[in-house]
Amino acid sequence: MERFLRFPLEQIPLIAAVLLIAFTVHEFAHAYTAYKLGDSTAKNQGRLTLNPIHHLDPIGTLLIFIAGFGWARPVPVNRYHFKNPRLGGILVSLMGPVSNFLLAFIGMGVLYLLIVTGVAASLPALVMKFFDLFVYFNVLLFVFNLLPLPPLDGYRIVEDLLPPSVRAKMTQYEQFGSLIFIVLVITPLGGYTIYPIIRTVVPFFIESLQNVFTMFL
Q: Given 3-state DSSP classes, what are the helix, strand and coil percentages for the chain, each rounded to the nearest 5?
């Protein structure tokens, strides 16, 4: 069975725990931001919670391990409840990826504290591996979700930055964009498009976080 998995079998429990946190916080950030801006749609549907049961999509989570990509349940948002729909839409879309970056920052901080205090030497290797994976996957989600492809948050941000007339035309072809995205992710074409970006940008952000804590610890 292991050969069908994207990651080593022994890392699966750690990755599952990391994604449980990362996906839940990501979707909660969308729901909370929308609620603070005046839209209670997510709250009314029980999504304004840190309970992962309300956010995880079983198939989307399973595909993370099999195909290397996946998804959580999208948070319902009615942008017309915002005083400024375009600005509100941008903020709601942005806060999901930003929440993952903040988690990565916290994870890197904990990792460095454990190292510089010497505590890391007395901890099981799995603990340190957990924080390594915690930082990596949260940076990955931050970068991946900002790609300007539907149905990702980056696409929603681009939509709200463009004039309404252009947004309307984008909506007409959004289903085709989603199909292109799926093709890029699951076929070798991704090796020439999405994945080179991820392989370049994710290590850059991880190294930048390392440099920040190296300066102060």
A: 75, 0, 20
- Does 1 have pLDDT greater than 50? no
Structure tokens, 31 = 């729901």
SS3 51: coil
Torsion of Cα atoms, 48 then 139 then 37 then 72, to 10°: -40
Mean pLDDT for the stretch of residues 165-171: 84
* H or E segment to which residue 157 belongs: helix 153-161
Write down the catalytic residue from 2, 10, 27, 159.
27
Which residue do the tokens 């990362």 mark? 22
The count of other CB atoms within 10 Å of the CB of residue 96 is: 27
Closest C-alpha to 107, from 63, 147, 140, 66: 140
Residue 76, preceding peptide bond in cis (omega within 30° of 0): no
Instruction: Based on the residue annotation, tell me whether 207 is a catalytic residue of this protein.
Output: no
CA 169 to chain centre: 27
* Eight-state DSSP code of residue 149: S
List Cβ neighbours of 73 (8 Å cut-off, separation of 6 or more).
27, 47, 54, 55, 56, 57, 60
Stated pTM of the model: 0.91
Q: Answer yes or no: are the C-beta atoms of 134 and 20 closer than 8 Å.
A: no
> Does residue 105 have a pLDDT over 90?
yes
What's the confidence (pLDDT) of residue 6?
64
